[in-house]
User: Fold this.
Amino acid sequence: MSVAEERIERLHELARAAAREGKDALAKRYVRRARRVAERNRLSLPTQFKRFTCDACDAYLIPGRNARVRTQDGHVVITCDCGAQERYPY
Assistant:
C-alpha cells in the first residue's frame, strides 16, 4: 500500500468521525483533501469512500442525517441535502 493510499484511508476515517460529531465543514475539508491526493497520484478512490461522499458538494453522507436512501427498480438511490443523486445497482 502506497503512502497516498494510506493517506486517503486516514482522511476517510477522519471525515467519517467529523461528520458523526456534526462537524460538517471539517468533514468536507477531509473529503476534498482525499480527492486531491487521489488526483495527484492518479489513484481511484475506494468504493466505500465514493459511496459515502457527494460529488456535487463534497459532503460526507450519513443516511438519515444529510442523505436519503431509497431503493428503486433494482438500484439504491442516495440523495444528498444539496439535491444531487447517485444510483448504484444491487
About this structure: The chain has a mean pLDDT of 96. The radius of gyration is 13 Å.
